């Protein structure tokens, strides 16, 4: 599907244009225009940060930047102070300005990836599609990038901007020529406010400590933490029993300490385990299983077509595309990380669709099921599925998760139907096992 | 579907197709109106509140028409008298009333038999016989009453006869689907369907928009009545396996079957007749009780033609009967002698229904523990499968797959009442309890025992499948504050274990 969209952006130092990731995601052709300049300039994407909905783009033509003063970034505006949002709401040639006040500063879900929560500032200025990526200004400095709002059932006219700590983090992250993204501890934890629980754990009544609930095995903390541990401090900042820490004079939630860090940075904990105090340090990293539950952009979906059967790994995009009602599929999606289902099923391989052909005409009831094993061999990834189905066999007995019957395929029949299916359904490639087209390293290291 | 029963009543809307019939005019004033074989049934019901398991919900009144059968019995649907506090029969022509008792009830088949407390109450009413020979194309009349007691009969056409799920969703039963331009009178629950003055069925559900009735058919009623004659009502029989069509030639070949027909056995329930008779996953069932089964699981019925073979079991067989199953195992024919049994709702891990039964619960310092059941999940309303906590729905729907062969319950921490003992815990809800004080919990009774033995220093340690994984309570403090908790939240007893 080819669609057009517009957004706003602003020039910062280094001839770079900052905008939202969702403005440039999946773009095939990108142009920018300046107020008062009749030309359209072709632009290219330098960096996209889908996890915080920011992107940097640039224009090769030096004319574009002529007489242009880059905007400077400010800090976090005060509550109730006035800010102005600039952009091109609902299209239009002329810039629009709306003003409002800073209403709230809090962690919010960033809907672009729909798994990331970062600091966001709610403002009362009107923000509409076309404002996206535009600067929100105060005292001639950028204090945020307009990026999302709510309208409808829950609330109306609620607008959010990406605040400068998030913007600065993004700019710092890309300083080495690539965007590594946010790192995560990969754990869930709870408040320690119950007196009986504190006493049981041997803690003093000093209002300190949070208890570790789940440690994501694929995350950085798996090496040093286990459920039931009490975290007393993070990087020497005492953790209050409600999960807050004091950071640079502000009372913020514990993950804020990690929010400001980068891949391969370390974080240090004081840990209370079995009524003993220990310390531990971990090197931070991304937690890949989470990505399954978030939106993906600028990647080619992975799939395998075999005998007209389309196998795809479970993902948020798959759930949204097929809207499956199946309880098991929803369970695998919802509890993929927290129940550590990814350990056994790094890819949850779903038979999503069937390209009808005489060889698969009775297989419709298997649609929406999850592949467990083939000829008795557990299938963990799409690569394994592809590999197994390309090995010689008299037949493939594909066991699906659950009590249903196995799906039986005869490789000879599949082979004889292969050209027929390819031609009839215009299957250009029978599989894509890589999300990224194999890129050369220099492509990733775009020079500024 | 019950919500549809509150249909607007149009007094003048009896349409042309409806044969309106009153009792024939008396030749002189002395002759009384001939009594119909119907009585009004007025019920006050009060279901339990699974979110406040120590109390009941507000009472609701329901009205229905019961079919008068022989031996002074009145037949109604089970959902009418479920959770009833009081049942009353009312004679249509005179308005005389008497209390009634529920003699037999079958929630799965949705049928119940009532008996008036006054033995002579039904005197003079001619009992209805049962017409079990209804086929597709027959016309059935739905009998309702005017406020005066006069009969309103609406005729409809039987369009299909097939197996469908009944309200409690245990197995499938034979169902008549009748296309009928019926207007609801008095928001009636049970409505008899009559063929040639014989009872052919009872209304199961009605969709006023498409004007389609699903009816509990006479063969199911007959089965119920016959079973009700026995001293100990056992319920409808089951076999306990699931199956899949063998239309796919590859699957047939895999099962070793080269002929035609039969269904592929995909799972066998533990402790059920099929597994006891030796049935295995991968078997192909070729015939049941000497009726050949096609690849879709249908046999040819003498009345209905092709219909799902489960009808042979639910409508035609009884618990205790031995049915021969011809199967193919790895290409070899075999016969299995399957002794049918009724599967009680309590023989499930998450019982599919619990009606006229008080829910079990235990309140500990403000934490409310219950056993997972579909009755509990149905508190989320008709869309409970989407709206109830997803892990619970998953555990309920896939229970035999998740806990194969286990005889147990799933104990849940359903909610937390804010109290001194639950400070910091009040956001927890819908958790699955795995251990208490280190002991595995497979029923609420397990839990009640385990909390009596606190771990070191008087702590009660509760472990859950989900986050928070573990929480602790102070046993002494719970005991001290129990009276205040009861007083504060109006809980008459902190536990009900039977």
Description of the structure:
The complex is a heterodimer of chains A (448) and B (498). With 448 residues, chain A is α+β, with helices and mostly antiparallel strands. Chain A has nine helices and 27 strands. In chain A, a hairpin with a 3-residue loop joins strand 1 and strand 2. Chain B contains eleven helices and 29 strands. Helices cover 15% and strands 35% of the residues of chain B. The chains are: A alpha+beta (448), B alpha+beta (498). Chains A and B meet through strand 12, helix 3, strand 13 and helix 6 of A and strand 14, helix 3, strand 15, helix 8 and strand 28 of B.
Report the portion of residues of chain B in β strands.
35-45%
How many beta-strand elements of chain A? 27
Largest sheet of chain A: 6 strands, antiparallel, barrel
Rg result of chain B: 26 Å
The structure class of chain B reads alpha+beta
Largest interface comes to: A-B, 37 and 40 residues
DSSP strand count of chain B: 29
What Rg of chain A is obtained from the alpha carbons, in whole angstroms?
25 Å
CATH topology of the largest domain in chain B, which one?
N-terminal domain of MutM-like DNA repair proteins
């Amino acid at each position: 599907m080819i669609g057009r969209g517009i957004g706003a952006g602003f020039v910062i130092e280094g001839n770079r244009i900052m905008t939202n990731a969702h403005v440039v995601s999946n773009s095939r052709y990108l142009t920018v225009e300046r107020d008062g300049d009749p030309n359209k300039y072709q632009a290219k994407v330098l960096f996209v940060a889908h996890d915080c909905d920011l992107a940097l783009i640039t224009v090769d033509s030096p004319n574009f930047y002529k007489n242009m003063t880059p905007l400077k970034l400010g800090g976090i505006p005060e509550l109730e102070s006035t800010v102005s949002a600039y952009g091109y709401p609902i299209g239009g040639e002329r810039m629009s300005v709306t003003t409002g006040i800073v209403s709230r500063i809090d962690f919010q879900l960033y809907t672009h990836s729909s798994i990331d929560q970062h600091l966001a500032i709610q403002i009362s200025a009107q923000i509409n599609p076309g404002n996206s990526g535009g600067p929100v200004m105060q005292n001639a400095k950028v204090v945020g990038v307009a990026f999302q709002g709510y309208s409808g059932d829950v609330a109306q006219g609620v607008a959010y901007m990406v605040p400068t700590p998030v913007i600065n983090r993004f700019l710092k992250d890309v300083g080495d020529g690539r965007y590594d993204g946010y790192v995560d501890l990969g754990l869930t934890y709870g408040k320690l406010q119950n007196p009986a629980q504190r006493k049981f754990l041997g803690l003093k009544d000093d209002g300190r400590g949070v208890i570790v609930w789940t440690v994501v095995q694929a995350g950085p903390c798996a090496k040093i933490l286990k459920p039931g541990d009490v975290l007393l401090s993070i990087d020497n900042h005492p953790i209050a029993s409600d999960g807050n820490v004091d950071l640079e004079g502000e009372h913020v939630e514990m993950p804020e300490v990690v929010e400001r860090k980068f891949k391969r940075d370390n974080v240090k904990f004081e840990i209370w385990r079995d009524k003993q105090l220990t310390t531990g340090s971990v090197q931070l990293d991304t937690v890949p299983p989470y990505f399954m539950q978030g939106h993906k952009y600028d990647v080619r979906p992975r799939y395998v077509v075999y005998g007209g059967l389309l196998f795809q790994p479970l993902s948020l995009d798959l759930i949204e595309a097929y809207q499956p009602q199946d309880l098991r599929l929803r369970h695998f999606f919802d509890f993929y990380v927290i129940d550590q289902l990814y350990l056994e099923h790094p890819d949850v391989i779903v038979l999503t669709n069937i390209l009808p052909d005489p060889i698969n005409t009775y297989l419709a009831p298997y649609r929406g099921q999850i592949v467990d094993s083939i000829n008795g061999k557990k299938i963990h990834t799409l690569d394994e599925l592809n590999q197994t189905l390309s090995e010689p066999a008299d037949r493939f007995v594909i066991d699906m998760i659950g009590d249903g019957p196995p799906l039986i395929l005869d490789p000879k029949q599949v082979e004889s139907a292969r050209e027929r299916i390819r031609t009839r359904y215009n299957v250009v490639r029978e599989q894509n096992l890589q999300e990224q087209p194999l890129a050369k390293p220099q492509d990733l290291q775009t020079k500024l | 579907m019950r919500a549809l029963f509150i249909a607007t009543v149009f007094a003048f809307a009896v349409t042309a197709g409806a044969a309106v019939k009153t009792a024939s005019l008396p030749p002189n004033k002395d002759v009384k109106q001939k009594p119909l074989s119907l009585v009004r049934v007025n019920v006050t019901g009060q279901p339990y509140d699974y979110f406040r398991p120590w109390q009941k919900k507000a009472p609701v009144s329901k009205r229905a028409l019961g079919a008068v059968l022989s031996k002074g019995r009145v037949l109604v649907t089970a959902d009418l008298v479920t959770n009833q506090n009081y049942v009353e029969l009312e004679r249509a022509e005179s308005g005389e009333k008497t209390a009634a008792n529920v003699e037999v009830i079958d929630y799965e088949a949705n049928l119940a038999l009532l008996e008036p407390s006054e033995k002579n109450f039904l005197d003079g009413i001619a009992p209805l016989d049962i017409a079990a020979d209804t086929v597709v194309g027959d016309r059935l009349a739905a009998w309702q009453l005017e406020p005066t007691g006069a009969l309103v009969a609406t005729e409809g056409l039987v369009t299909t006869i097939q197996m469908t799920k009944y309200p409690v969703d245990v197995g499938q039963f034979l169902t008549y689907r009748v296309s009928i331009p019926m207007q609801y009178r008095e928001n009636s629950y049970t409505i008899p369907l009559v063929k040639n003055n014989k009872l052919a069925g009872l209304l199961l559900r009605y969709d006023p928009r498409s004007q389609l009735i699903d009816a509990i058919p006479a063969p199911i009623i007959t089965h119920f009545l016959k079973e009700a004659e026995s001293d100990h009502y056992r319920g409808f029989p089951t076999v306990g396996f699931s199956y899949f069509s063998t239309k796919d030639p590859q699957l047939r070949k895999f099962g070793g079957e080269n002929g035609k027909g039969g269904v592929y056995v995909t799972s066998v329930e533990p402790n059920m007749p099929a597994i006891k008779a030796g049935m295995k996953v991968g078997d192909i069932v070729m015939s049941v009780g000497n009726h050949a089964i096609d690849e879709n699981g249908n046999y040819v019925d003498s009345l209905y033609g092709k219909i799902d073979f489960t009808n042979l079991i639910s409508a035609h067989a009884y618990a205790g009967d031995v049915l021969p199953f011809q199967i193919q195992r790895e290409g070899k024919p075999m016969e299995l002698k399957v002794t049918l049994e009724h599967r009680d709702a309590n023989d499930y891990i998450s019982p599919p229904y619990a009606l006229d039964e008080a829910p079990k619960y235990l309140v500990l310092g403000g934490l409310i523990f219950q056993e997972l059941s579909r009755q509990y999940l149905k508190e989320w309303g008709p869309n409970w499968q989407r709206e109830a906590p997803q892990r619970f729905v998953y555990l309920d729907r896939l229970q035999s797959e998740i806990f194969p062969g286990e005889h147990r319950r799933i104990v849940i921490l359903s909610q937390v009442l804010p109290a001194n003992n639950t400070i910091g815990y009040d956001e927890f809800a819908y958790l699955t309890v795995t251990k208490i004080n280190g002991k595995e919990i497979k029923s609420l009774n397990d839990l009640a025992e385990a909390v009596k033995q606190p771990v070191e220093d008087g702590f009660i340690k509760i472990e859950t499948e989900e986050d928070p994984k573990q929480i602790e309570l102070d046993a002494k403090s719970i005991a001290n504050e129990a009276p205040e908790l009861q007083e504060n939240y109006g809980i008459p007893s902190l536990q009900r274990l039977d």
